[in-house]
């Protein structure tokens, strides 16, 4: 069942989202060649805790760190490490969650490490624009699958792979709530969106195949063909005439 959040709950979710956005604002400054993904995780955890929240991901299902750091062919759930040092030309998706007074904010963003290739830049730009294409389909009375349809329609001309094994989701007191939000069109239009639903919309797009595999650590998910991947995500609340982004400053 998809919960409708009260305005009191939305205010708490908005603060959780603001804290996540603070982390991303700092990531934009510090992502550079030579920094470790472990350092990035510690920076985010400090910001989250200093703002009265806790890292949503740390300990979730046994995940060991505060954020997910997914480099190049890693699609999602990359584990930060002192040994993993960013280098010129990498792209990295950083997924951040913060829990504030029992409510979660969740947002992922992809970053260029130094100067990147034209092809990688296009992949990131298309994925980011696909996120906003999906958001533009959101409003009270729309169907859930309108989101996935809009994302697929935008991405299809570029012949990139749309990851099907992972989806967006509802957000609230739980980090992952109903519904699952596909990033492609399905035969089922799904439930009708209603004012007060809170959703995390997150296209994951690969430059090659849509197919992925999970490594032995049971978290790190990579493209099957070694192609690069980008990931963008915002948590939003459905409004009568559209949506409000909660993971923003």
Molecular structure report:
Helix 1 (7-30) packs antiparallel against helix 2 and helix 3 (118-136) packs antiparallel against helix 4. The protein has four helices and 15 strands. By secondary structure, it is an alpha+beta fold. The protein has helices at residues 7-30, 37-50, 118-136, 145-155; strands at residues 54-55, 67-71, 74-76, 91-100, 103-112, 161-162, 168-170, 177-181, 198-201, 204-206, 212-214, 221-223, 229-231, 234-239, 242-245. It has a single domain, classed as Creatine Amidinohydrolase, CATH 3.90.230.10. The longest helix is centred in the N-terminal third of the chain and has 24 residues, at 7-30. The strands form four sheets. The protein has a five-stranded antiparallel sheet. 27% of the residues lie in helices and 27% in strands.
Keywords:
249 residues; Creatine Amidinohydrolase; four-stranded antiparallel beta sheet; globular
Helix and strand run: HHEEEEEHHEEEEEEEEEE
Low-confidence stretches: none
How helical, in percent, are the residues? 25-40%
Number of helices: 4
So what's the overall shape? Answer: globular
Mean pLDDT: 98
- Report the radius of gyration as a whole number of Å: 17 Å
Quaternary state of this entry equals: single chain
What percent of residues are in strands?
A: 25-35%
Largest sheet: 5 strands, antiparallel
CATH superfamily, please?
Answer: Creatinase/methionine aminopeptidase superfamily
> Class, according to the CATH hierarchy?
Alpha Beta
Q: What structural class should be given to the helix and strand makeup?
A: alpha+beta
- State the distance separating the first and last CA atoms: 30 Å
The second-level CATH architecture is Alpha-Beta Complex
β-strand number = 15
Number of domains: 1
Task: Please name the CATH topology.
Answer: Creatine Amidinohydrolase
Instruction: Report strand order across the widest sheet.
Output: 8-7-9-14-15
